[in-house]
């Protein structure tokens, strides 16, 4: 086994995080961190870049959308919302996979002691007040949009699921709130980070 076949790299968008200088067979990126995956491929062009996005985040957030498209990933995985990739300037040979809300929750549930129950109970940490917690859970279940882990945390779980024989190296994914390297002032991850923290 070659050295590069021993590791998988998962990249997130935390500010000031380094890209490890080790060769791997696959890089998984979360949302806009696909740009960092593309930079990695400048050094190791044979590496397969798997860009994982929240479908709605990709469609609504131009900063994320631009970085993912320009990274020219080998594989694009969208969770919760199906993307019409023909509308975007992706490579013609890109592999696309859509994970419905049910499918992405099933993947997550395999990693938690009480499966789906852990996801539902910890999703309540998204809100602070008890009434808001209840409203959030009921709305999420009603609309079929129970997210659970953030895209970064989900990318780690997805990599672990698909590469059980390899070690996963993580860079730029954390469980503290804050922005991304391309938008440090954003506080969009703050609430989801509380859910991640509880799930971990």
Secondary structure layout:
Blueprint: E1 7-11, E2 26-30, H1 34-43, E3 48-54, H2 55-60, H3 62-70, E4 75-79, E5 95-99, H4 101-109, H5 116-123, H6 130-142, H7 151-162, E6 167-171, H8 190-199
Parallel strand pairs: 1-2, 1-6, 2-3, 3-4, 4-5
Helix pairs in contact: 4-5, 5-8
Give the overall pLDDT as a whole number: 90
Radius of gyration, whole Å? 16 Å
The total of beta strands comes to 6
Distance between the termini: 31 Å
Shape: globular
What characterizes the major β-sheet? 6 strands, parallel
Number of helices, where a helix is a run of at least 4 consecutive DSSP H or I residues: 8
The proportion of residues forming helix, as a percent range, comes to: 25-40%
Low-confidence stretches: none
Class from helix and strand fractions? alpha/beta
| N-to-C series of helices and strands | EEHEHHEEHHHHEH
Output the strand order for the largest sheet: 5-4-3-2-1-6
Q: In what range is the share of β-strand residues?
A: 15-25%
